[in-house]
């Protein structure tokens, strides 16, 4: 794992099973990345999650890039229904 700090990404015990979320929300990093994987633009993600800023969305994408092995199973779970 890359030792990097993130301004907006936190892990909270008891919130989303301790998975990475955007601070002050229950929005998971994997939720944001899954949306972009299915074709949503950053602006569309912000429109879907009005509590998020563009900077927070970009940081979710950066977190994903740094933690792909951790994030891939979560994203696969989010997008599995699209393969049916």
Describe the model.
49% of the residues lie in helices and 7% in strands. It has one domain (9-83): Winged helix-like DNA-binding domain superfamily/Winged helix DNA-binding domain (Arc Repressor Mutant, subunit A, Orthogonal Bundle), CATH 1.10.10.10. It has a two-stranded antiparallel ribbon. It has helices spanning 29-37, 42-48, 54-66, 68-79; strands at 9-11, 20-22. A hairpin with an 8-residue loop joins strand 1 (9-11) and strand 2 (20-22). The chain has 84 residues and is mainly alpha-helical. The mean pLDDT is 91. It has four helices and two strands, in the order ββαααα.
Overview features:
mainly alpha, 49% helix, 84 residues, Arc Repressor Mutant, subunit A, 4 helices, single chain
Distance between the termini: 33 Å
As for the CATH topology, it is Arc Repressor Mutant, subunit A
Query: Which residue ranges are poorly predicted, with pLDDT under 50 across at least 5 consecutive positions?
Result: none
Number of helices: 4
Largest beta-sheet details: 2 strands, antiparallel
Per CATH, the class reads Mainly Alpha
Provide the CATH superfamily: Winged helix-like DNA-binding domain superfamily/Winged helix DNA-binding domain
The CATH architecture assignment turns out to be Orthogonal Bundle
What sort of overall outline do the alpha carbons produce when their principal axes are compared? globular
The average pLDDT is: 91
Number of strands: 2
Binned, the helix content reads 40-55%
Domain unit count: 1
Order of helices and strands: EEHHHH
Strand content: 5-15%
SS-based structural class?
Answer: mainly alpha
Order of strands side by side in the largest beta sheet?
A: 1-2
> What is the rounded Rg?
12 Å
């Amino acid at each position: 794992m890359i030792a990097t700090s993130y301004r907006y990404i936190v892990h909270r015990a008891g919130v989303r099973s301790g998975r990475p979320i955007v601070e002050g929300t229950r929005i998971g990093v994997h939720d944001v990345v899954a949306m972009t994987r299915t074709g949503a633009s950053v602006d569309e993600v912000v429109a879907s999650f009005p509590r998020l800023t563009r900077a927070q969305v970009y940081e979710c994408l950066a977190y994903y890039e740094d933690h792909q092995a951790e994030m891939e199973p979560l994203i696969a779970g989010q997008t599995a229904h699209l393969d049916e």
